[in-house]
Design brief:
It is a single chain. With about 270 residues, the protein is mostly helical. The protein contains 15 helices and no strands. Helices cover about 70% and strands about 0% of the residues. The protein is globular.
Amino acid sequence: MKTTAKKGATKSAKAFTSKVAAKPTTKPPKNTAKPSAIKVSLQNEVQSALKWLKSHSTKATLDGMARYALPSDNAFGVAYRDMKVLGKRLGRNHELAGALWDTGVYEARMVASFVADPAQLTPAQMDRWCKAFDNWGICDTMCFNLFDRTPHAWAKVTHWSSSNDEFVKRTAFALLWSLSVHDKRTGDEPFIEGLTLIERAASDERNFVKKSANMALRAIGKRNRTLNAAAIAVARRLADSPNSVARWVGKDALRELTSPSVIRRLRPRAPNRG
């Protein structure tokens, strides 16, 4: 009886072992064609986006870009509203955003600002894209649609504000400007520090730098009463500067920051007694 039981157990064990051996004990090798297929799919998406943009381009828009200091040598001539429509259709897709950026086409890069994922955008990628900015349109659009939503935004304001490159430096103040509008959680202190950066850069005579510094100064001063007072103080110092560029930045900002409409908007609201 024992011998028979032992043989039966051995037979069962062999059968079990055979079944286990028949099943793969490790994961099957990755399909080597998969990365290639993904790459092809991504390129198809890029080509589809470029085709859509071309179909919405007009010669009038392309010719008009020069009037707004926007380079048109690598552009189709698509209105911003249409680029925004395409960006919403594509949705968040960080890999696609990078591929659109790599085309070098102005409108494709603008669409990348809607498609890129702020949570996946690294400081290195921000630096790489920023270094390639060559016009105010892509600079400001990236700041308002994407850069100001990343956790690296404030660090980049400080970092880029000391750059010698005109559009990198503009990006610092365009980003500070957009943070003034969109960042509802940050307290006053970072904006006070931003005013110091503005005052330091206000004598930069390059057109796209001085205009962004001016816009950032005005935006900070319209955020609340405390920042309004701080921005007015900076604007008055700049307005009294011996430097003509700094004077323009200060006087132009001062006109808006002390205007009745801004003062009225920042005035404390009376309690609702109803």
